[in-house]
TrEMBL record:
Catalytic activity line of the entry: RX + glutathione = an S-substituted glutathione + a halide anion + H(+)
A GO CC term attached to the entry: cytoplasm
EC id: 2.5.1.18
Domain GST C-terminal: 305-426
Name this polypeptide is given: glutathione transferase
Entries under InterPro entries matching the protein: Glutathione-S-Trfase_C-like (IPR010987), Glutathione-S-Trfase_C_sf (IPR036282), Glutathione_S-Trfase (IPR040079), Glutathione_S-Trfase_N (IPR004045), GST_C (IPR004046), GST_C_Tau (IPR045074), Omega/Tau-like (IPR045073), RNase_H-like_dom_plant (IPR044730)
GST N-terminal domain location: 220-300
Keyword presence, Transferase: yes
GO terms (BP aspect): glutathione metabolic process
UniProt keyword terms in alphabetical order: Transferase
Species assigned in the record: Cannabis sativa (Hemp)
UniProt-listed Pfam families: GST_C, GST_N, RVT_3
Amino acid sequence: MIKEVSPSKEELIALFKSRDIGKFNRFGICLIDELWTARNRAFHDRVNPSWRGVLARVQGAASCLLTAWDTRPNSEVIQHAHKEIYLGKLVLFVDAAFKELRVAAGIVVSESEGSFSDALAVNFDANQPLEAESWAVFHAFRWCQTRGWRQVVIVSDCQLLVQGLQARMAPDWRLTGVFWSMLELLDDLPEVEVVWMPRSRNQIQNTGDFVSNNIKIMGEEVKLYGARGSPFSDRVNIALKLKGVEYKYFEENYLNNKSTSLLKYNPIHKKVPTFVHNEKPIAESLVIFEYIDETWKTHPILPQHPYERAQARFWSYFIDDKIVPTTLKVVKAKEERKNTLEELSEYLEMLEKELKDKYVGGEGIGMVDIAGNFIAQWIPTTKELVGVDILTEAKFPKLYQWSWDFATHPAIKEVSPSKEEIIAIFKPRLNATN
């Protein structure tokens, strides 16, 4: 494998003659790092990488390394700051626990007055403690981006990490990838400050009861059995992404060859999505929603008020019971298409009247919005699939704008298939039924 991904003799000579020692060093650094990572994955996870995959990651890391070395500072990073209260700003205290290549990172949100308002826990793999701290801060940046927080101070007790962010240079060459990812996010969040605080003063260390009651610890296992192109699987992916929950995803060929694991965890319906938390399976996307929302408290999916929660459930089931099946009838039944299209328009008009803010649940994405992913991402494909343009700006102006806001949200785009991908998945199936 080393022979396959290493530069040829002629390439090395050309690099030397051109005196581009920097390019030579970058490739060598990234190659060594990737081979070490591949060794760890093969030993611990029994995952054997291909040489093409290794080469692609080496070239990508080398490109990031060049950009990171050549980029000048653009975002403000503060080190050695000892303020504990930042008036008018949220304070995110970040810490990570590292053991046997597994990491449990905790992020606690404090109001400027000192009261705690939110918490997030993330589990992931890492090769060393500094990498663990780096990914923990990365998740803090991502959380700020997802929640739309701008006036924020992020507190880390890893002095080396904060100094590296200030200099825009990874303190360890093995961290080039995560560092470049952090710098990209930090450039999008110019008002976010990163502060070093001694471990003894990090508020996470002084709030043991709060952390133990509000964030999940290392050892949790979250799995999702889904299928690319299934709007119901996509809903659960979106909910987990908004919550910041780390999970293992298993792609299912649910039409022809269902896995033994899917049949084991969902013996009644034998369908995706099937969600498994610590070996406890849950089926049906809307039921999974509520379980996720009650288990992980960050970014609430359902409203707090009982009446508003009931309304969110009603409209979510309205989408599943009325809009989804009627849309499928429009696509499949040519003879009844006109009448069915009128019926679907009536249902969409009802939802149009319910939409009063940017999202159905207000200013943030909630249960009805996620349940409506079928409307925002699948209904627009009917124009290409069967020549019927259902969701037009002229007829449904509020739903049309909502669908755009939803589909272009960073968290949604990250886990959802594109319009072209949805068409590619469903067009062969549609042709097979006609």
